[in-house]
Write a structure and sequence with these properties.
Largest sheet: 7 strands, mixed
Shape: globular
Structural class: alpha/beta
Order of helices and strands: HHHHHHHHHHEEEHEHHHEEE
Number of helices: 14
Radius of gyration: 21 Å
Strand order of the largest sheet: 1-2-6-5-4-3-7
């Protein structure tokens, strides 16, 4: 919930009680974090326009549990799950409006046919039971009142499933520069940039690329590369400084592509391809791109 609301305090108390309840019932993280549960997370991520960072965090958690989560599963799910939420950066409204529209539970209500409702959760009950119980608390009705203060309706934020025409949020791309894959949040990409052919402009650090954008030495239509910023290269930081600089430049924001072996913030907008694998430090093909090479981006065909 928004940080200024009393719900934060109330939810913190409930979280403490939930931990004690889990201990009492002997339920551990391994009982909750099942493959079906991860699939549910991917479904919700697709519907809300979630971050490409889910494609780092979810596999990392699965790895800790002793199994491998195939990131190609994201692509499968994003092709079939409707993109319901009209929230930034993929949509129009700030994320707090999603909370007022009913939050993730309201999204899950719409997505029931795509979700496994029998998974165990941190309440000690199944997801299906949680969704039924939340209806009885008055949570939805109370929050809709807040939404009206913005002169918005629930449908403005969470589109009903039967009216939704867009699908998914993130995709796995492959090609001769990313033979092991790369990721993009296509829900935040303008329609006319779903395909692009442009000249490469190559940088070996984010700072250098950002400086070129600030100095206005980047041309409309360029394909910018930031490399050696992968996990081995520099610990894989977010390229937020550069993506923000591009989005604040009128001639660049509607015309340039950014490709990196680094990662992005959840707030990233525009045609930004990240997690390029193998990364430059490992001798991946991205290490051998040169200025003025012709680069083709084709999101529709992955």
């Amino acid at each position: 919930s928004p940080a200024t609301m009393i719900d934060i305090l109330e939810t913190s108390r409930l979280a403490g009680r939930a931990v004690l309840n889990l201990k009492k019932k002997g339920i551990t993280a391994r009982d909750i974090l099942t493959p079906e549960d991860f699939e549910n997370a991917m479904v919700v991520n697709a519907a809300i326009g979630g971050s490409t960072n889910a494609m780092i965090h979810l596999p990392a958690i699965a790895h800790e549990l002793g199994w491998e989560l195939d990131v190609n599963k994201f692509d499968e799910i994003n092709k079939k799950v409707p993109h319901l939420c009209n929230i930034a950066p993929s949509g129009k409204y700030p994320s707090e409006t999603l909370w007022f529209a009913g939050g993730i539970p309201a999204v899950q209500e719409e997505l029931k046919e795509f979700l496994n409702l029998d998974v165990m959760t941190s309440t000690g009950k199944t997801l299906g039971e949680n969704l039924e119980n939340i209806k009885k608390t008055g949570f939805y009705e109370r929050n809709i009142g807040y939404l009206y203060n913005y002169n918005l309706r629930k449908e403005d934020i969470i589109e009903p499933l039967n009216k939704c025409e867009k699908f998914g949020s993130v995709a796995v791309l492959k090609g001769n520069l990313a033979p092991e894959g790369a990721v993009i949040k296509y829900s935040a990409v303008a329609e006319d940039m779903m395909y692009h052919l442009g000249k490469a402009k190559v940088f070996n650090s984010e700072e250098d690329c950002n400086q070129a954008v600030v100095d206005e030495t980047v041309d409309a239509g360029d394909v910018l590369f930031i490399r050696y910023e992968g996990p081995r290269g520099s610990g894989m930081p977010e390229m937020l400084m550069t993506t923000e600089a591009i989005m604040h430049d009128e001639k660049l924001k509607a015309s340039t592509v950014l490709i990196t072996d680094g990662r992005f913030s959840g707030a990233t907008k525009g045609p930004c391809v990240g997690h390029v694998s193998p990364e430059a430090t490992s001798g991946g093909p991205i290490a051998f791109v040169e200025d003025n090479d012709l680069i083709e981006l084709d999101i529709e065909n992955r």
